[in-house]
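Box 3.1 A note on notation
Throughout this textbook, protein chains are presented in two layers. The first layer is the amino acid sequence; the second is a token string describing backbone geometry. Keep the layers aligned when reading.
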Amino acid sequence: MSNGTAWILMFAGFVASAASQILIKARLDPITEAGGSYRQLVTDPLMWLAVLLIIGFVVCWYTALTRIPLSIMMAWSAVVLPLIAVGAWIWLGEPLGAGKLASIGVIAAGVAMLSVF
């Protein structure tokens, strides 16, 4: 596997991780608000998709780890937080105000610095 492939896998894993969290939140909210049972989640196909996304993240992460140093991967893993914030804003209607946008900028700067130094 090339280093380029490892980087693609790493980022694919990050997207899978963020998507799984957003999907889980989207499925949990209606059930808990309606007073439903968590047992409903066992038969929910979207929850199973979320589980598959988590497994995909794990496979991508450890495969990429064979080529990319852990210190670099851990720094880049911080991009999951902005992915979730933006995804939650788009798909769940969560607020994305100036404070969150500034925080995303700080995370981006931190990732860039850790990757360079």
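Helices lie at 3-33, 45-64, 70-76, 80-92, 98-116. The first helix runs from residue 3 to 33.
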